Amino acid sequence: MSRKSLTYKDAGVDIDAGNRLVDRIRPLVARTARPEVLAGIGGFGGLFALPEGRYREPVLVSGTDGVGTKLKLAQQVGRHDTIGIDLVAMCVNDVVVQGAEALFFLDYFACGRLDVDVAAAVIGGIARGCEQAGAALIGGETAEMPDMYAIGEYDLAGFCVGAVERSELVDGRGIAAGDAVIGLASSGPHSNGYSLIRRVLELAEEQARGSSPAIEGTPAEEVLLEPTRIYVKPLLALMREVTIKGMAHITGGGITENLPRMLPASVHAQIDVNSWQQGPVFDWLAATGRIAADEMRRTFNCGVGMVLVVSPADAARALAALERLGERAWRLGRIAPGAGGVRYV
User: Fold this and answer.
1) Phi and psi (nearest 5°) for 51?
2) What's the CA dihedral at 332, 247, 340, 293 to 10 degrees?
3) Which of 83, 203, 212, 272 shows the smallest number of beta carbons within 10 Å?
4) Whole-model pTM above 0.90?
5) 238 contacts 322 by C-beta, under 8 angstroms
6) 337 Cβ contact list (under 8 Å, min separation 6)
7) At what angle do helices 83-96 and 116-133 cross, to 10 degrees?
């Protein structure tokens, strides 16, 4: 009795599906192209040439991240078209705080069984995020790994490289007492704190007793899947108008943990808690989960997605420019003498 010849597809990996995915995403990737891209997707490595004459002393700035357990919520709800924006945002927002322009991006998509429609939706979101950031999507990897992930599950990672002139690096060294601290509004929780958010959502569902939880009339899942705001283009434009002394991307750890990362040891930030309203989604999380204020500030961005430090003389001009560039920004506090950290006043 002859035995059937096994194939890779029998083992759970469909090479043809991977090829179909590449064909589907090719036009999406093409929309992110920059003149410096030397080859399209499909090669063993992405090719990108630094623009000739653009930099005298270029410094490359790299970043990598994922979107955490926000992925589980997206998969639970079956919405896959915006989670890729989150992936790009988490990387490019980290790169721009050093003053760097995001040049190119690569992604890694891993799953148990490749669903071409789902993967194309995810990568379509990645391409839209790259367009928002001005970065070229020059490559990526799709890994189909049966037994590693359950059917219907996938994971994401992203990798970004940017560049900045050495003399224009933003590193916080010039921050001094008296400087102004400016906050830029977030679009929601962005991509942090979702292990706690999913627990709060479970509590809300239990309390609703069969009804779908809502935040100000909008289904909670829809509000919680609002993609992370990408700040790259407005901040690069602002840097051409005023000197930004320091920037902090407010991710996991909130203002409490992230703002001190840009401060010299001789100063601290005083944050005026009355200078902004954190927004309905954070009010809902705090009330539904009975989360204390300090815990909220150490877990979520609480409505502040990015923080800048400028000289007091530049504060009004920076705020006016940010408004003109489409950002909601305000005076969040000030820099004062002290041994680092954040104080809420």
Assistant:
1) -60, 130
2) 50
3) 212
4) yes
5) yes
6) 177, 266, 267, 268
7) 30
pLDDT tens readout for residues 29-64: 778 888 888 877 767 788 889 888 888 999 999 999
Instruction: Sort 6 into a burial class: Cβ within 10 Å, 0-12 / 13-18 / 19+.
Output: exposed
What's the pLDDT at 38? 85
| Rounded CA separation 94/160 (Å) | 9
State how far the Cα of 35 lies from the Cα of 104, in Å rounded to an integer. Answer: 11
Residue 277: the pLDDT is 93
Maximal C-alpha separation, the chain: 87
Q: Could you tell me if 37 and 51 are in contact, meaning their C-beta atoms sit under 8 angstroms apart?
A: no
Averaged pLDDT score across all residues of the chain: 91
Output the pLDDT for position 8: 59
pLDDT of residue 108: 95
Q: Which residues of 7-35 are buried (b: 16+ CB within 10 A; e: fewer)?
A: eeeeeebbeebeeebeebbeebbeebeee
How far is the C-alpha of 66 from the C-alpha of 287, rounded, in Å? 28
CA angle 181, 184, 185 (to 5 degrees): 140
pLDDT beyond 90 at 227 = yes
- Cα→Cα distances 78→74, 129, 201, Å: 6, 19, 16
Confidence at residue 3, expressed as pLDDT on a 0 to 100 scale: 65
User: What single letter denotes the amino acid at residue 118?
Assistant: V
Whether residue 1 is predicted with pLDDT greater than 60 in this model: the reply is: no
3-state secondary structure of 180: strand
Confidence band, pLDDT 50/70/90 cuts, at residue 10 = low
| CB burial readout 165-190, b (16+ within 10 A) else e | eeeeebebeebeeebbbbbbbbbbbb
Average of per-residue pLDDT across 159-188: 95
Which residue from 273, 106, 276 is spatially nearest to 186, judged by alpha carbons? 276
Q: Which residues of 136-157 are buried (b: 16+ CB within 10 A; e: fewer)?
A: bbbbbebebeeeebeeeebbbb
CA dist 201 and 207 (Å) reads: 10
Backbone phi and psi for residue 177, each to the nearest 5 degrees, phi listed first? -55, 135
> What is the number of helices (H) and of strands (E) in the chain?
11, 12
